[in-house]
Amino acid sequence: METDILELLRSLAQPVTKTLSGYPVAFDGENQTITMTFETTVDFAHTNGTIVQGGFVTAMLDMTMAHLVLGLSAGKTNPISLDINTSFIAPCPVGAHTCTAKIIKMGKSIGFLSAELSANDKLIATSTSTVKFVPTGL
Prior knowledge:
- The protein is of the alpha+beta class.
- It has one domain (2-135): Hotdog Thioesterase (Thiol Ester Dehydrase, Chain A), CATH 3.10.129.10.
- The protein contains 3 helices and 8 strands; from the N terminus they run H-H-E-E-E-E-H-E-E-E-E.
- The strands form 2 sheets. Strands 1-2-6-7-8-5 form a 6-stranded antiparallel sheet. It has a two-stranded antiparallel sheet with strand order 3-4.
- Helix 1 (2-11) crosses helix 3 (54-72).
- The longest helix is centred in the middle third of the chain and has 19 residues, at 54-72.
- The radius of gyration is 14 Å and the shape is globular.
């Protein structure tokens, strides 16, 4: 089942996902978690191309949380962000990143999620988000 969900999520990749080289690598429906990898380049960085800009860091966190909801609903529910809060722990280097998201609480129409982004086994940023569930039409 998890392999099918990963294949579905990969097939639904939007241009923004591809821009950040986002790729779902692990999905656990029972524990309501997902892990995605990302690859950033100097095109996303400031400080002479060494630090990924915070908006892109937040996008990776948000994208991972969204993919979790899409996966849990088998692509039938789109999470629309009502709010997102990002805490920056360390500068985000250019290169490979891993992001893991989990459900804090899911209601019928609203969900609360969290995510952590790391690079080189170092925590870079955390995020929480409140989302509204909207049918995708799939």
